[in-house]
Design a protein that fits this description.
Radius of gyration: 22 Å
Low-confidence stretches: 234-245
Mean pLDDT: 86
Strand content: under 5%
Amino acid sequence: MAGTLAEFFELDEHDTDVSTEILAGVTTFLTMSYIVVVNPAILSAAISVDGRTTGQTIQMLAVVTIISAATATLVMALYANRPFAQAPGLGLNAFFAFTVVLGLGVPWQTALAAVVVEGVVFIALTAVGAREYIIKLFPEPVKFAVGAGIGLFLAIIGLEAMHVVASDPATFLQFNPVFASDPIAIISVLGLFVTFALYSADIPGSIVIGIALTTLASYAAAALGYSAIDPSVPALDGVFLYTPASLTGQTDVVYSAAGYDITPLVGAFLSGFSNVDALGFSLIVFTFFFVDFFDTAGTLTGVSQIAGFLDEEGNLPDIDKPLMADAVGTTVGGIIGTSTVTTYIESATGVEEGGRTGLTALVVALLFLASLALVPLAAAVPLHASHIALVVIAVLMLRNIVDIRWNDLSHAVPAGLTMFIMPFTYSISYGIAAGIIAYPVVKAAQGDYRDVHAGQWVLAAAFVFYFFVRTSGILAGAL
């Protein structure tokens, strides 16, 4: 069996083995399994199904989340042979639920129709090589900065989940003001340093071991009666307490057999095409398309940089194959009832554990499918425990900045903006946009405008148009 897997996934050519790939797949799954709970929680605010309770709807959405993630990741494994995992994307699901459905009053079936159309367009563009061509137009400094930018982005996400940082009305971000009395913060930081120690000692599976130890400590603390303190809320008499469940990451949703019947969601997008305003629908599709395109491109480039997949020009060879996995996942997801599927930055954790082939992705897909047997199982690992892995990877991804020519402003400015904007706007695509817009401007200012490809000017103009559509209120006016 091991020999067959090694031959199919070309493990020897990628200098890896079955055990390393399995460990990498488990690591990636543990760091992204939160989406099984988070995606339904977000989408259930906008999607309601006649005859189903809220709890049953949430479970239905959990099931379709798992199916879409497993489908896309299986395509990634078996067709692209890359160690990238996919699932419905955060941010895109919030745009779906809160902006399109709740904010603009678009029926959720129509929003699903937009996702399906986006997926079909992606499949067509990928098949003819258009997406690969566009990604190759990314300026070199942007490609080399994406990895470090994603690292900073991961650090913010991880530190927030660990309760090390918290929101602040004046500075937007601050150190947790109740750190010393917050069990999540204390357990998370201890777990982080244990993981760093294990990694530095070259202990195999150090990230998984760190997550497991942090999880066990969290459940032990919850059993002893400790509760999580919310660092984002000014303390009243010193504390704001959650229930012990908030410390372990468990959910209060009761799962039932009826929640596994997803037939009301499957094909619901078809009714969404009726009475559609052409302009408004097109703008929604455009927004889904734009964010997913550049999020996926950025993630593939950044994670590939860690894995050593990029060529000398910063391009990922045969990138059309992982892009096709993303396109198929998005189309299937829209058909069965969930928002846009994209490549996950958490894939970097598995790559750092040594994952180099589709066998890593196959393990992730199989673990998603296994979680169908007991949906809450995927949420057994607390968010703060799994996210210590993101901080570990964030530190390691910063090593990539040595590839940037910092003494050349035409590289330093777009690279720096790419790195800064990603974490501060909570968006990979916004970071890429900043770098792509800055590159031709700086080049032209230096008198080197002839070095700028015409397509790079077009990309910059497209991003400016996107920001106009996204922030000017034109979407609301068109619907």
